[in-house]
Design a protein that fits this description.
The chain is an alpha/beta fold. The chain is built from ten helices and eight strands.
């Protein structure tokens, strides 16, 4: 699995969007019991923190030690560095396995084999993701220009699976419908720019060119479309696959 987020782990914890509590509650309602859950590729623990309110114990793993250093702490969450495809957990350990915005990085055949080994009978596997944000037509056009025209060559091939909302992802489980939902925030332009800095393609661009992908002209256009200090509503569409 690629580690594209260790270098910006602090910014990731500050600026990355979370996941709707109502969605996680819906997923939890499908579980046969609430003894233990595994949040795989937990990042800074956004999903794990929600699961901690529902499960006696939450195991949360990630390949990035830096991400885990910025993770949300709860007494019943145990964080450890580890890959998605190979773990030391015993067979039939979990009532629920979740993956947030990371399944596209996995060796899926190996991960699915591990998930089958670890899920209790009737357990639930949920792959969750989010797609490009929307604000308003003027800001959206600028973000899309940055995403496609400037950073297009710097996105990993796996990003296409996110763009397709995991619709083309192999998912060999009995599937239940994924609810239509989104995450909404009140952001300033500073929040937006902070979030854009966490993009993996942004980091690839900076490493290659040693400069920001946002030109002065682009920044001026962005500030004209979104005056500094003004609060606007930002919406992230949520998608995923749920196996029961």
């Amino acid at each position: 699995m690629k580690d594209n987020f260790s270098t910006q782990s602090a910014a990731y914890a500050r600026f990355r969007p979370g996941y709707p509590a109502a969605l996680l509650e819906h997923i939890c309602s499908l579980c046969p019991a609430f003894d233990a859950a595994w949040d795989c590729a937990t990042g800074n623990g956004q999903i794990a923190a929600i699961l901690a309110a529902h499960f006696r114990q939450v195991e949360a793993t990630d390949i990035s030690e830096n991400q885990l250093k910025n993770a949300i702490q709860q007494p019943n969450i145990h964080y450890q560095v580890g890959a998605a495809e190979t773990t030391s957990f015993p067979d039939w350990s979990f009532d629920l396995i979740t993956v947030g915005q990371a399944a596209h990085w996995f060796d899926l055949d190996r991960f699915y084999a591990e998930a089958r080994r670890l899920l209790k009978p009737g357990g639930v596997l949920a792959l969750i993701g989010y797609n490009l944000l929307t604000v308003d037509p003027a800001v959206d056009a600028l973000v899309w220009h940055l995403y496609r025209d400037v950073l297009g060559p710097y996105w990993d091939a796996e990003r296409r699976l996110v763009e397709q909302a995991y619709a083309t992802l192999d998912f060999p489980f009995e599937e239940t419908p994924f609810p239509e939902t989104y995450m909404e925030y009140s952001w300033t332009l500073e929040n937006l720019i902070g979030y854009l800095n966490t993009w993996s393609a942004w980091q690839h661009y900076v490493r290659e060119k040693n400069e920001s992908p946002m030109s002065e002209a682009f920044v001026e256009s962005l500030r004209a479309a979104w005056p500094e200090g003004e609060v606007r509503t930002v919406r992230f569409p949520i998608f995923g696959r749920i196996g029961v």
